[in-house]
Design brief:
alpha+beta; 6 strands; 32% strand
């Protein structure tokens, strides 16, 4: 008998009622949570990468909220209450941020 390991994959997602957390469900039925501040701090878009390089990237984003989520298939485009909407979070990256 061969055992096949299947990597978790994102099947559903939504912002929490208070918009402070991304709620993710995997195809394996795991419910995961990623705080909006963690997402914003983890953005890898060119703008945020450059701001980090230049020492201009904030260390915290207190009170940040998720304002929009777009599904791109391989990842989510998440917009935030500070107006930032450039970040694309591949679904495997989201799972790593949630500790999976």
């Amino acid at each position: 008998m061969t055992m096949t390991l299947v990597a978790p994959t994102v099947s559903e997602y939504e912002a929490s009622d208070d918009l402070a957390t991304l709620l993710v469900r995997t195809a394996q039925d795991n419910a995961l949570r990623v705080p909006a501040e963690t997402l914003r701090l983890s953005c890898k878009c060119a703008h945020c990468t450059r701001a980090r390089f230049d020492g201009r990237f904030p260390e915290t984003f207190p009170g940040i909220a998720i304002t929009e989520i777009g599904d791109l298939g391989y990842g989510l485009n998440i917009a935030f209450s500070d107006g930032h909407n450039r970040g694309i979070y591949p679904k495997t990256y989201l799972l790593s941020l949630a500790g999976r």
